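[recover] target loaded
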């Protein structure tokens, strides 16, 4: 049986754009994924700024290995994670939801697959100072400074 899906052949706006640059974001989903060598948090962010990308989503991973804990620490600190949980070395998935901050992203291609890198973080209050820098599918859009 054939099924007709209008627009199936067209590139999705959220899935086809490779957003790179600095974005003010909010954590929409956070899941811990256990892996024997590289456990990680899978995060989905909703873009709040800059205006042309509002509502788009970014997904990335923050690894929880001993060598990568510095980056998880940086993310939690800059996104305003709960101080009590942080001081007890605990990360609760539900406590991550709704946190906001600035993230700088880039894309890496490995074995023909494209991955989003979460390169840097900053508190949401620093958004105005940092300005806006974004690249969509290699098309640079810049206004101000980067992280």
């Amino acid at each position: 049986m054939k099924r007709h899906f209008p627009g199936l052949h067209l590139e999705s706006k959220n899935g086809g754009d490779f957003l790179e640059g600095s974005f003010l974001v909010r954590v929409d989903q956070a899941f811990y994924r256990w892996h024997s060598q590289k456990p990680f948090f899978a995060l989905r962010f909703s873009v709040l700024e800059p205006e042309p990308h509002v509502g788009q989503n970014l997904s990335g991973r923050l690894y929880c290995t001993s060598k990568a804990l510095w980056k998880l620490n940086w993310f939690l600190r800059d996104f305003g994670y709960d101080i009590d949980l942080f001081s007890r070395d605990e990360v609760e998935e539900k406590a991550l939801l709704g946190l906001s901050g600035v993230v700088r992203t880039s894309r890496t291609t490995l074995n023909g697959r494209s991955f989003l890198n979460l390169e840097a973080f900053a508190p949401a209050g620093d958004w105005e100072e940092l300005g806006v820098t974004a690249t969509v599918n290699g098309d640079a859009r810049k206004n101000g400074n980067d992280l």
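[recover] notes: Residues 17-136 form one domain.
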